[in-house]
Amino acid sequence: MDTWMRLMANDGSIVFGRVEDGYLHEYEGLDQAVPTGAVLSLRTLAPLAPCAPGKVVALWNNFHALALKLEKPVPEHPLFLIKPAESVIGSGVPIRRPAHYAGKIVFEGELGIVIGKRCRNASLAEAEDAIFGYTIVNDVTAAGLLAENPHFPQWCRAKGFDTFCCLGPAIVSGFDWRSARVVTRLDGVERQNYPLDDMVFTPAQQVSLISQDLTLEPGDVIACGTSLGVGSIGDGATVEVSIEGIGTLSNTLGPRPDGDAQSPAGAGRERQSATVA
């Protein structure tokens, strides 16, 4: 197995490469796995999300145990939504509560598939070959918005806010997902612990079937869906999602935004103050 990270240097430049013994062996990029020859100490680099996806395809109802609990039929094709690139953050970066939303925010610990080759209408073999590696995802959701409008379930809005897609801390190629488990802890208390071999669609099946619907580009991520144990994150709480062999993704839900911007009345007072000033 190889571990890959994306990091920022002191001059603001972004580097990507294979990590070994505390050093980053730089490569041209995720879609160009060609070494540049540069070797950099990790002590001089700040970690970022391990890739910069153009889109994150997030699955729903992809685990047998959860389908059974929800009394939902197992789907015949992956059920998915799209999380925007702007929602992506790395490990250690705070999750930001939307300024005008005071409701429930939910964590979902998941395995993430990182695409390494452009693929469209891929066979299973082509799909397997297109998988660069695997990472960890916390698919954050503003659960109270899902059914806010009775005429239109707002999946993309509820899951698409800035900072609502936590990725990291690394990508691991050659990872054996079949024997791995996802363990999610909320402020140190275990909330999820489920086997990845309970997935309805394997990673290769996900890539192949989703590529029948849309083109997958290098760096795109498929969040494989979650299983039992999803729960709420309180303001200031820390969610840690761990998969042995990949690492631990840790993010804290920041406090509510300062001021009275939470309410129309507060927004009115801010506008009045600005006018007076």
Report on this structure.
This is Fumarylacetoacetate hydrolase family protein. GO terms for molecular function: acetylpyruvate hydrolase activity; metal ion binding. Keywords: Hydrolase, Metal-binding. Pfam families: FAA_hydrolase. InterPro entries: Fumarylacetoacetase-like_C, Fumarylacetoacetase_C_sf. It is a single chain. By secondary structure, the chain is mainly β. The protein folds into two domains: 48 residues, Roll (SH3 type barrels); 204 residues, Fumarylacetoacetate hydrolase, domain 2 (Alpha-Beta Complex). 15% of the residues lie in helices and 39% in strands. It has five helices and 19 strands. The strands form three sheets. Strands 1, 2, 3, 4, 5, 6, 7, 8, 10, 11, 13 and 16 form a twelve-stranded mixed sheet that branches. Helix 2 crosses helix 4. The radius of gyration is 20 Å and the shape is globular.
Mind sketching the topology for me?
Blueprint: E1 2-8, E2 14-20, E3 23-29, E4 32-41, E5 46-47, E6 55-60, H1 64-70, E7 79-84, E8 88-89, E9 105-107, E10 109-115, H2 124-130, E11 131-139, E12 141-142, H3 155-159, E13 165-173, E14 181-186, E15 189-195, H4 203-211, E16 221-223, E17 231-232, E18 238-243, E19 247-252, H5 264-276
Work out the strand percent. 35-45%
Largest sheet: 12 strands, mixed
Strand runs, count: 19
Q: How do the helices and strands follow one another from N- to C-terminus?
A: EEEEEEHEEEEHEEHEEEHEEEEH
- Looking at CATH, which topology of the largest domain would you report? Fumarylacetoacetate hydrolase, domain 2
CATH architecture of the largest domain: Alpha-Beta Complex
InterPro entries: Fumarylacetoacetase-like_C (IPR011234), Fumarylacetoacetase_C_sf (IPR036663)
Protein name: Fumarylacetoacetate hydrolase family protein
Biased composition (Basic and acidic residues): 268-277
Pfam family, one: FAA_hydrolase
